[in-house]
Amino acid sequence: MGVTCVSQMPVAEGKSVQQTVELLTRKLEMLGAEKQGTFCVDCETYHTAASTLGSQGQPGKLMYVMHNSEYPLSCFALFENGPCLTADTNFDVLMVKLKGFFQSAKASKIETRGTRYQYCDFLVKVGTVTMGPSARGISVEVEYGPCVVASDCWSLLLEFLQSFLGSHTPGAPAVFGNRHDAVYGPADTMVQYMELFNKIRKQQQVPVAGIR
Amino acid sequence: MADVLSVGVNLEAFAQAISAIQALRSSVSRVFDCLKDGMRNKETLEGREKAFIAHFQDNLHSVNRDLNELERLSNLVGKPSENHPLHNSGLLSLDPVQDKTPLYSQLLQAYKWSNKLQYHAGLASGLLNQQSLKRSANQMGVSAKRRPKAQPTTLVLPPQYVDDVISRIDRMFPEMSIHLSRPNGTSAMLLLDIWSKSNYQVFQKVTDHATTALLHYQLPQMPDVVVRSFMTWLRSYIKLFQAPCQRCGKFLQDGLPPTWRDFRTLEAFHDTCRQ
Q1: Under DSSP, is residue B266 helix (H, G, I), strand (E, B) or coil?
Q2: How far is A64 from chain B (nearest CA, A)?
Q3: H or E segment to which residue B81 belongs
Q4: 3-state DSSP call for residue A64?
Q5: Which of A32, A122, A156 faces B241 most closely, judged by CB atoms?
Q6: Which of the four, A198, B18, B114, B192, has the lowest number of CB atoms within 10 Å?
Q7: CA-nearest residue of chain A to B256?
């Protein structure tokens, strides 16, 4: 597990999501990256049940339950700006039991799927973000395995991102700033994905609707 | 050996000389036989003495005769050993062709050189064996220097001294945890790195470079300086991911950060940028 940066790649003008992804993967392959199977990150939204809300008199908080194919035995539960819980996959069953407190939001499932590439010590995952039947955007995750302190290798990561994202290189993820000099963990990656998904949810549907 | 020498020499005289030597040896042994047998088988003391002396004289005469014969033959054979100190190659000097005449003296010179070289190499190997600089990629600690294998006399240090040096280095570099252990009584080992190969290419490269550095830093007279300078060098990797290459100014080259650190300036370079 190394330091990871998750960002969104805007869809190229006049191109579909699919075409933009292909463009990106071709660039990666030209760079010398090797294909290494696929990956998937999904996220489901829960909100606190109405019955428990009234007594406390505060607005309902959203909870996100996520899975990452990189950590197949784990399940992540996050609050926005809040704590992140890393649990076994059995946590999903527990959520069913907690129906009285947390209710699954309808049609809220959002996920990103795509190919996993290895380039030296970098792990690059380019995925198509889908919500229901429609493609909503492109996610790019870059992980640098050897380093576990985000502030140490950010400039190095940035240089790598620039090499294939060009002008769409993102700024430093917010989680990097939160944990100065601390060891980077899988939960930090999930927080980044959660933020990305939230951003994409708020966006308008992609004008040129990508077809899966 | 005699056969080799006699090539081009009077072979017949040689054969005769050898038989002369045999004759000489047999006559000499007859003299000693006679002396061993002493005086016996004679009636009177006088007769015994007379016969013995006559016999002894005969024998000595034959020895003398054989010796003279051998001497005569040896003159015939010549003196090959003087003429050809380098065996057959000595014949080169006899070559009448003009442009080949310096060949022999050059050959002698080369022979002297190689002799001298062998002598010095022998001395050097003796010295090196004493220092026991045997190191391999596996000995990733500074352990190699501290291992009194085959009793390298100059490197056996009092344990107190070793402890002292290590604790000083430990205090020098608070970022690194240095652990000193003595698995076999007196020999101390420094645990710096794990033995297994890293999954990451960066660290494989760094391991290679560290092995190189172990070979680079050596000064048998002052082992503590060696350990300290190696640790200083190793410490420069604290900025492995933060330091751009001093030559090309970039972080990445072929997907790797600058993994090389200069031995003296500790500057970061890519493996290919360092030349």
Answers
A1: coil
A2: 33
A3: helix B80-83
A4: strand
A5: A156
A6: B114
A7: A120
- 3-state SS class at B234: helix
Q: Worst-scoring range by mean pLDDT, A9-13, A90-94, A207-211, B222-226? A: A207-211
The stretch B103-117 carries a mean pLDDT of: 88
The torsion of the CA quartet B58, B61, B63, B69, rounded to 10 degrees, works out to -140
Tell me if chain B has a CB within 8 Å of the CB of A162.
Answer: no
A10 touching chain B per CB within 8 A: no
Query: Dihedrals φ, ψ of A90, to 5°?
Result: -60, -15
Nearest C-alpha in B relative to A149: B241
**What is the Cα–Cα distance from B194 to A124, expressed in whole angstroms?**
28
The 3-state DSSP class for residue B240 equals coil
CA B145 to CA A167: how far, in whole Å?
Answer: 52
Q: Tell whether A153 is within 8 A of chain B (Cβ).
A: yes
Chain A residues in contact with B255 by the CB 8 A cut-off are: 32, 119-122, 160
Helices (H) and strands (E) in chain A, counts: 6, 9
DSSP state of A105: P
- The answer to whether B67 and B57 have CB atoms below 8 angstroms apart is no
| Predicted complex ipTM exceeds 0.85 | no
Global pTM reads 0.60
Q: Does A122 touch chain B (CB under 8 A)?
A: yes
Residue A153 and residue B241: Cβ atoms within 8 Å?
Answer: yes
pLDDT band at B113 (very low <50, low <70, confident <90, very high): very high
Best CA proximity match to A2, nearest among A173, A181, A161, A142? A142
Contact A155 B251 (CB under 8 A): yes
For chain B, where are the E strands, in sequence order?
A: 179-184, 187-191, 260-261, 268-269
Burial string for B155-186 (b: 16+ CB within 10 Å, else e) reads bebeeeebeebbeebeeeeeeeebebeeeeee
Q: For residues A187 and A76, is the Cβ–Cβ distance under 8 A?
A: yes
Cβ neighbours of A90 (radius 10 Å): 10
pLDDT tens for A41-100 read: 999 988 877 666 555 556 667 888 999 999 999 999 988 777 888 999 888 888 888 888
DSSP state of B78: -
- Integer Cα distance of A176 and A197 in angstroms: 18
Instruction: Point out the residue among A121, A155, A163 whose CB comes nearest to the CB of B202.
Output: A121
Q: Which among B8-12, B90-94, B103-107 has the top mean pLDDT?
A: B103-107
What is d(CA B146, CA B139) in angstroms, rounded to the nearest whole number?
11
Residues of B engaging A, defined by a Cβ cutoff of 8 Å = 198-203, 240-242, 244, 250-252, 254-257
Which residue from B minimizes the CA distance to A146?
Answer: B200
The C-alpha atoms of residue B10 and residue A200 are separated, in whole angstroms, by 109
The Cα B200–Cα B208 span in angstroms is: 13
